[in-house]
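We read letters as residues; the fold follows as tokens. A sample entry reads:
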Amino acid sequence: MLWKDEPKAQDFLHDLFIKLIEGPDRIDASRPFSTWIYSVAHNMCKNEYRKENFRKSANWTNGQHVEFMQSDLDQQDFQSQLEKLLSLADENDKGLFIMRYELELTISEIATIMEIPEGTVKSRLFYLKKKLAGMLKIFNPAIK
């Protein structure tokens, strides 16, 4: 499922077992273990597909390759600007961003923590990303 990339598959397998070791309480004892582990692995792969699609869309616009030759200074400037925007954001948006993109929690985990439906988490993430992308579009001219 990971483009027949053996090293990536091995990394994902490792990450899957780390999730199992670090969070045995996440396993629903009323369901078969194989169902749980398959669901987690499937979701990990789906998330990787989404990330890959995002990476491709960031590098390709209307079929034309856009080169982003950013220096370390540009990267630091971007990070600084992102941190500034997050510091000005309300606590829910800031927490949501940190949980998803820094702690890399799943949508389900975030929904449980915030005690809101998964659909609400997805919606809030979508609008937060859209808002941040608009404010940071100077760093990626392909964003309109």
Observations:
- The first helix runs from residue 6 to 22.
- The longest strand covers residues 60-61.
- Strands lie at 60-61, 64-65.
- The chain has a mean pLDDT of 79.
